Amino acid sequence: MSRRTDTLTTLERHLERCAISIKPAVKREGVDAWFPYYAGYSPGFVREALTGLGAQPGWSVLDPWNGAGTTTAVADALGCDAVGLDINPVAALVAAARLERSANTSHSAGLANQLLAVASRNEIDLADDDPLLEWFSPRVTRRYRSIEGAVLDLLGTRDGVKVNLQTETPPPFAAFFILCLVRAAKHFARMKGNSNPTWITPEKRGDTRTETFDRAFLSMVAACAADAEKAALGRSSTRSTVSVVSLADARALSLEASSIDAVVTSPPYCTRIDYFRATAFELAALGIGADGERFRALRSSAMGTNLMRTTTPDVSAQPSAVRQLLKCIQQHPSKASDTYYYKHYSQYFDDARLSVAEIGRVLKPNATALLVVQSSYYKDIHVPLGDLYAALGEELGFRARVVLRVPVRRVLATINPRARHHETERRYSEDVVALQRVA
């Protein structure tokens, strides 16, 4: 048996033996609750995945769809140099905050009070088109921007220039305070009730006294600092790491070829979930309004987006399994199958192909990427996403296979009442796909 086969077989046996839950806990606690994405996986899974891959302190571990930063936080705690990339500024902010050392956050209470004092001295000219005015009264919005400005003035500058939160990820300590500010502010927002948890809209402007808002901020800083200190207890390596989180596109990684020892990630599922609508409040807090060009550009560039781009994907470049799925969708008799939905799925798999090719470029020879994906359905057509990513990997020259498959009962698709009558007929699974670069 070859060394390459040994690696995948050893990993498969390890994941089966440890029987760790892939999905995060329903009720998340500590740093995992700072921003609980619907999608993703548990910290325990990342630890076991890296253990199964033989990760050592000093490895470079990449997550090109980093989300709220589970991979980067766990890899960093193991002494690896983590690289977390995402196109959503909210996700990058959360992930960067999770990299802040507890040695700093333990002193955050005193600094938070200083930030409030600086904010009170700042005179803010509130823009008429500030996206937060859709969510809050001018009083709350002005106080929020004053505190945000104080954080960036003191902690969020590069070469004397304040970080632009719309296009850059602040350093971890600044990200920690900005995240605390966002989370504290959200308590005062008035959200519309909606059967779809990913569609967030304001019901009316939230309001409160400045003193009350400040107390909420201080309370959130204290709570998040305690979370960070508790998380630090699980750190298993004393190695000084060089981990980084930044905004980037998985289809065009700004990393050197053959520089990454392992990838643990979860690409967007093929389920038409609008992750940017789900972060509409947080994006507004960062200055990106739901009606603006920046918001639309982010949505359009996202993998799995509901928006159709003007480019035409090259379906012929896909493996036969993907082409067959696309053909079935195109020929389905339901409305818009041969137009919008065919284009949507073609666009998704084109993004997937480009991204997997980039992962192959940056992986070291014989190194492995693990992708966690979930199966789904288009009408009555099964979309076995794990098998499709394995086929895509083989087409691109990887050794590829599904190394773990776990049945899933609850999926977001079943929130649609019209889809529930199919629930007993359908079988969903969470798959871990291993893609090993051939030397």
UniProtKB/TrEMBL annotation:
GO molecular function: DNA binding; site-specific DNA-methyltransferase (cytosine-N4-specific) activity
Any GO BP: methylation
EC number in record: 2.1.1.113
Reactions it catalyzes: a 2'-deoxycytidine in DNA + S-adenosyl-L-methionine = an N(4)-methyl-2'-deoxycytidine in DNA + S-adenosyl-L-homocysteine + H(+)
Record key words, sorted: Methyltransferase, Restriction system, S-adenosyl-L-methionine, Transferase
InterPro entries referenced in this protein's UniProt entry, alphabetically: MeTrfase_CN4_CS, SAM-dependent_MTases_sf
Highest taxon listed in the record's lineage: Bacteria
Similarity comment: Belongs to the N(4)/N(6)-methyltransferase family. N(4) subfamily.
Name of the featured protein: site-specific DNA-methyltransferase (cytosine-N(4)-specific)
